[in-house]
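Figure S7 source data.
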Amino acid sequence: MPNAVIVGTQWGDEGKAKVIDYLTERSDVIIRFQGGANAGHTVIANGRKFVFHLVPSGIMYPDKTCIVGNGVVFDCEQFLKEVDELNDFGISVENRLFVSDLAHLVLPYHKAQDNAAESNMGQGKIGTTGRGIGPAYSDKVSRIGLRVGDLRDWDLFTEKFTANFELKKKLIQSVYNSDFKLSIDEILGNYKVIRDRMLSFIKDTGFLSFDATRNGKRLLFEGAQGTFLDIDHGTYPFVTSSNTLSGYACPGCGIGPSAINHVIGITKVYTTRVGNGPFPTELNDATGEKLRHEGGEFGATTGRPRRCGWFDSVMIRKSAQLNGLTRLALTKLDVLNTLDTIKICTHYEINGKKTEQFPTGIHDLSRAVPVYTEMEGWKCDISGCKTLQDLPSKALQYIRKLQNLCYDIPILIVSIGPDRNQTIEVDPLV
Ligand code: GDP
Ligand code: IMO
Ligand code: MG
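Tokens for the predicted guanosine-5'-diphosphate complex:
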């Protein structure tokens, strides 16, 4: 398979990890390029379920190389927890899981800052995952961050850590008027042990990726979050603190854009969102509740109920623009099995005017009234379907309608259940 970037086209939790796991079989190197442990990526294969926050979703295949790229903000404690869990399941990561020395560290004071900042925002809060993501990226941009590679020199690490710790203590206590309960001795004691475990994972992963492409290896770039959580083009300020778009795969892993052949947009056939912010097709009714129940729509990281709504083609068209999508992977079609009728948002009305384009700011988006077309449901179980032709005609009509509203982007995959096997491959990439 050619090199491909996987991105979520909505607000996250589209089923990216399921598709990455599926496509890993014909890839060699899988690289996470942004976000941090705010991601919750669920893989179910061979009767096992894993939720990864930092380890790339390709790790279940024993012979594949997995990389956490420099664009990720990296929480060592969470990472090592996942490594231990994999080892307990008999999945070895030795000599095939690497972390960029340039990735910035998420440290305990970032999580304390994240929570204190949210508490201070009251009604206007973002609804973050509390994993310290915003503060870690802020420190990176402010040029005071500590990087994974800094763990190599313990004395320098201790010096920089101590300076930042004192700064955060002042910020949290004096500006946010919050409790600061962290102990520097306890954290440094803990990180001394963490450091010893981390050293064997640290590498110049940009070169590793470049060298792999030069040797004909196939790369799969794993995005986290979703297009509309992008710091620039998402529903700001209700976004995450990184660029989630396909283009960031390059600076986020350290190779140039000519290495990318395809961009696969993972698209749930309805819409969900966790956290605050506008959501035009949200359903605050029994149908929304049904989608949540049937789709198991509870956050993989925080357990929060996900907000649910109808498929919004306006969003996916914008996503096609922002990511340069060359393929769609449609997920969770089975979740709609029991619905009598299904709606698709074709365009919005904003201040009484029709628009087919997603507005650039949340001022207009908050006023967007979705306009729908309605289709009949198929009302049967589709879990046994192996090909598109096996699907009931109404299900096929539904996906063709979605595709048609989304610039007729070719469909790579239709996912009809959480397991690796519950996947219909429509048009394989060669
Ligand atoms: P990600 O963050 O995009 O990787 O997605 P999550 O793992 O947070 O959420 C997707 C959820 O849907 C997980 O519980 C998956 O196991 C599940 N899932 C993925 N694809 C399908 C599908 O086609 N049908 C159903 N019913 N569940 C799916
Ligand atoms: P995956 O990779 C869904 C949301 C949070 C919040 C906003 C900012 O599993 O799709 P942050 O902690 O990043 O500062 O929170 O972003 N968010 C996600 N929503 N899926 C995710 O990841 C998310 N990662 C962050 O809920 O609204
Ligand atoms: Mg998720």
